[in-house]
Amino acid sequence: MIQSSLSEFFDAPTLFYPEAEKDKIVIRYSGEKYLTDIPTLDDIVAGNDEGLTSNLNDALSSCEKIPFMAIDSEGSTEKIKGMYRYVLRLYGRLINGQKALVTLIGIQVFFDILVPDRETPDECEEKVSEILSGIVKSFKTEHIKAFPFRGYYVEKKPYLRIYTNSTGERKKAIIAV
């Protein structure tokens, strides 16, 4: 084995096999910061803060709205106070560059079913309840009126709104109906 000249740059032993694997380099990470001259995001934020952190702290202390842009999200079902609840987590950054996590609890998971023209909402609810009773652990129905997504309609149409406890249960219910 030959030690690469990169090991001087990385300040750690960098090994490669000369014959069969000329382009492949094995780098061993020792937990040190190798690129000391390149600023991190925290360094950039600290250098360009211009009072943003104090503005953010003032807004938080006085319960004002603060700008937040989510760049990633994650949904899960968690047991909260003995009940399974849908939890949505939004990951992003604040105006001063700090990482932020916004957790939304209590979001109701639902889908809507258009009631056929020849049925009443009660008849449709009865049929749907029979189908879902053996498939979904718990669900709740509600009668609503809304405009369909496609087409032009002068009046709202009747829908059944089906609430479930999780996105997995909702998926099962949609497939069944």
Automatic annotation (TrEMBL):
It comes from the Eukaryota. InterPro entries: RNaseH-like_sf. This is Uncharacterized protein. It comes from Rhizophagus irregularis (strain DAOM 197198w).
